[in-house]
Specification:
The chain is of the alpha+beta class and 179 residues long. It is built from 5 helices and 10 strands, in the order ββαββααββββααββ. The relative contact order is 0.14.
Length: 179
C-alpha cells in the first residue's frame, strides 16, 4: 500500500489452485462428510481445488499438485503456512466484531525475482470469498445469502463493513440509487 488510495501491484505467475481454509463445517464439507452445518472443526482444515471452471474446480490432493507440476512441495508448504497466517489474522479481526469466520478461499502466485520465485497472496479477501456468520445468531453475512436466496446481499456486506469500521453508517436509499 502506497497511501490511502494507491497500492503497488506486481505481476505474478498464478498458481492454478484455490486454497480453502475451513474452521466450521459448512457448504461442500458438510455435504461430503455428513457433518451438521455449524459444527466447529477440531482444527482448521486446508483443501486444494484445481482452478478450472470447465471441470467444476475439482478438489485435488498434494500428490496431484506435485505430480502434475502445478506447485512444488515447498510451494504447497508456503501456501499452507500463508493461509494459516491469514486465517489467524481474519479469525481475530472478525471475532472482535462478533463475526465467525467459517471458511475462506484464497489464491497464490509466484513473484519472480531473477531466477528465484516466492509464493505470495494473489487474491482479494471479501465476503465474496469468505463465509461469515454472526457469532450470536449464525445469520449469514456473506455470498450464501445470494446462493440460498436469503435476502439482500448488499445489506449484509454493508453490515460487515460497518462492524469492521470501514463504513460508519448504512447508506440511505434515495430516488435514483444509494447515497
Amino acid at each position: 500500500r502506497l497511501n490511502l488510495r494507491e497500492q503497488l501491484i506486481k505481476e505474478l505467475e498464478i498458481i492454478p489452485l484455490e486454497v480453502v481454509c475451513r474452521n466450521v463445517a459448512a457448504g461442500s464439507l458438510s455435504q461430503r462428510f455428513g457433518l451438521p452445518e455449524g459444527q466447529a472443526l477440531p482444527r482448521s482444515i486446508i483443501e486444494f481445488y484445481l482452478k478450472d471452471d470447465k471441470l467444476g474446480d475439482p478438489m485435488v490432493t498434494e500428490e496431484h499438485i506435485t505430480a502434475f507440476n502445478w506447485a512444488s512441495t515447498q510451494e504447497i508448504d508456503d501456501m499452507m503456512a500463508l493461509t494459516l497466517r491469514v486465517n489467524d489474522f481474519l479469525t481475530g479481526t472478525f471475532g472482535a466484531v462478533g463475526i465467525t469466520l467459517v471458511d475462506f478461499k484464497v489464491e497464490f502466485g509466484r513473484l519472480w525475482e531473477n531466477d528465484f520465485a516466492r509464493v505470495i497472496l494473489a487474491d482479494e479477501i471479501s465476503p465474496d470469498s469468505c463465509r461469515l456468520w454472526d457469532t450470536q445468531t449464525n445469520e449469514k453475512l456473506d455470498k450464501d445469502r445470494f446462493r440460498r436466496d436469503l435476502g439482500d446481499v448488499i445489506e449484509s456486506y454493508t453490515e460487515v463493513a460497518r462492524r469492521l469500521g470501514i463504513m460508519k453508517e448504512m447508506p440511505t436509499v434515495i430516488q435514483g440509487g444509494l447515497h
